[in-house]
């Protein structure tokens, strides 16, 4: 073997320095790929969190706004920054006759479920669009029982009020404090609905009532959350100019409220390393 061949054999393979350099470069490449993949995952997580809070905020506003669109100003029981209780009309009808703690009411379509009875149900009535709803709060006309009646029976007082070409249904609504209004008066059979903001799983939640318990207290169920407790609030407008009254209204059923605004900022339940939120509001005109 010549001297030249021995030197070529000595240079074959990687030197220690070259091996270290290749390992460093490989580590850098692996780290870069890991950072890229991790960044993509974080970006996807943030996007998912944004979509979550947007959907939650939009869903909460649609539900609250949908209920408020049916509310009557003189049927708003409690109105403050974090609590709103009102009478939500579920069925509209025409009064045939009233007396003795009961009212016979004709509803425009037959075949629908009978009006409900119970602690959250009641009725309001008015003789015309220019007269107030009765009874005036805090008195409530309750409905404790519902009995079907025959529209064509003269004893119900309905035959002379039944419109032509329709098949209405009539029911006797039994309870207390039924207003003394005349036949033909507009009747709203309502359910008491309550919203509030309170602590719940993982934070502060918007809650909605799910009936009343045997103790007479509302059964509140989480509706949407968690929310930013420093932002979520109800605001009330009314009076001659329809301006802002405030976030707390005493005896709201006497204030002729014209508009209620609900503002919410929803926090993400997914994102833990950074707060992701979406803020929005809904403003609803209230019927009087």
UniProtKB/TrEMBL annotation:
Originating species:
Longimicrobium terrae
Q: Where are the transmembrane segments?
A: 12-37
Q: Name one Pfam family in it.
A: N_methyl
The alphabetical list of record keywords is: Membrane, Transmembrane, Transmembrane helix
The protein here is known as Prepilin-type N-terminal cleavage/methylation domain-containing protein
């Amino acid at each position: 073997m010549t001297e030249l061949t021995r030197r070529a054999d000595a240079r074959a393979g990687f030197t220690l320095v070259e091996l270290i350099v290749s390992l460093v470069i490989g580590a850098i490449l692996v780290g870069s790929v890991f950072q890229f993949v991790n960044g993509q995952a974080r970006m996807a997580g943030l996007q998912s969190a944004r979509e979550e809070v947007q959907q939650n905020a939009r869903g909460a506003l649609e539900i609250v706004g949908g209920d408020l669109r049916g509310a009557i100003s003189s049927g708003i029981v409690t109105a403050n920054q974090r609590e709103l209780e009102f009478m939500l009309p579920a069925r509209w009808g025409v009064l045939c006759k009233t007396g003795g703690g009961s009212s016979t009411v004709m509803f425009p379509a037959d075949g629908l479920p009978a009006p409900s009875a119970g602690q959250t149900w009641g009725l309001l009535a008015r003789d015309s669009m220019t007269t107030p709803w009765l009874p005036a709060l805090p008195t409530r006309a309750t409905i404790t029982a519902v009995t079907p009646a025959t529209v064509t029976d003269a004893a119900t007082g309905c035959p002379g009020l039944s419109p032509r070409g329709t098949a209405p249904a009539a029911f006797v609504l039994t309870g207390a404090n039924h207003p003394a209004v005349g036949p033909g008066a507009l009747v709203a059979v309502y359910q008491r609905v309550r919203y509030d903001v309170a602590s719940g799983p993982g934070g502060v939640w918007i809650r909605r009532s799910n009936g009343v318990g045997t103790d007479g207290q509302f059964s509140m169920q989480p509706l949407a959350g968690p929310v930013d407790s420093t932002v979520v609030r109800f605001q009330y407008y009314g009076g001659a100019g329809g301006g802002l009254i405030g976030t707390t209204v005493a005896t709201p059923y006497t204030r002729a409220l014209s508009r209620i605004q609900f503002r919410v900022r929803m926090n993400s339940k997914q994102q833990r390393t950074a707060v992701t939120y979406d803020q929005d509001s809904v403003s609803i005109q209230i019927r009087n």
